[in-house]
C-alpha cells in the first residue's frame, strides 16, 4: 500500500494504519486508472466520455436498454434463452433513429436541468451532517438519556 502511494507521489504518513492507507488509496485510485481502449481511441482522434454511474437519466443507452428489457418481459412467455435472445434482437433491430434521438435529447435536457445545481445540492447535503462527537452537553441529550433508561451516575 505504501509503495503504491509512494510511486504515485501521494502524501501519507508512516504512522497511518492499513484502514487509513486503504481509504487514501480509494480516494486517489480513480485518477490513475487507465484503459487500453482509451489510448486506442485517442490514437484515432476520439475522446472518451465517462458517464456517472447510477444516473440513467444522463445515459441514453440505459433508456434504450430499459425499452428492450420491457419489450422482452412483455413478450416472453416461454422463459427460455432462445426466445429471450430472439426477442432482444427483434427489439434492438426495431429501435428507430427517432427513438435514439428522443432519448439523447431527453438526456441532454436532464443534464442541463441538473447543471449548475451542484452548489445547491452541496448546501443541502451540509444540513444533513450529524455531529456525534460534540463536547457540549445539552438538556436534549439528558432528556434522551432519561427516555432510554440510562442515568448518569
From TrEMBL:
Residues 131-153 are annotated as: Disordered. Coiled coil: none annotated. Gene3D superfamilies: Ribonuclease H-like superfamily/Ribonuclease H. Residues 24-76 form the Tc1-like transposase DDE domain. GO terms for molecular function: nucleic acid binding. InterPro entries: RNaseH_sf, Tc1-like_DDE_dom. Pfam families: DDE_3. Residues 136-153 have a biased composition (Acidic residues). This is Tc1-like transposase DDE domain-containing protein. It comes from Parnassius mnemosyne. The lineage of its organism: Eukaryota, Metazoa, Ecdysozoa, Arthropoda, Hexapoda.
Amino acid at each position: 500500500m505504501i509503495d503504491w502511494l509512494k510511486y504515485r507521489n501521494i502524501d501519507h504518513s508512516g504512522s497511518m494504519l492499513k484502514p487509513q492507507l486503504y481509504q487514501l488509496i480509494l480516494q486517489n485510485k480513480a485518477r490513475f486508472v487507465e484503459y487500453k481502449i482509451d489510448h486506442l481511441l485517442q490514437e484515432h482522434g476520439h475522446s472518451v466520455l465517462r458517464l456517472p454511474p447510477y444516473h440513467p437519466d444522463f445515459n441514453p443507452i440505459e433508456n434504450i436498454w430499459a425499452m428492450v428489457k420491457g419489450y422482452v418481459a412483455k413478450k416472453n412467455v416461454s422463459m427460455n434463452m432462445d426466445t429471450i435472445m430472439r426477442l432482444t434482437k427483434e427489439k434492438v433491430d426495431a429501435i428507430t433513429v427517432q427513438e435514439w434521438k428522443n432519448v439523447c435529447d431527453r438526456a441532454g435536457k436532464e443534464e442541463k436541468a441538473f447543471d449548475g445545481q451542484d452548489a445547491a445540492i452541496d448546501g443541502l447535503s451540509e444540513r444533513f451532517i450529524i455531529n456525534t462527537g460534540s463536547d457540549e452537553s445539552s438538556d436534549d441529550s439528558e432528556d434522551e438519556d432519561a427516555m432510554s433508561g440510562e442515568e448518569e451516575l
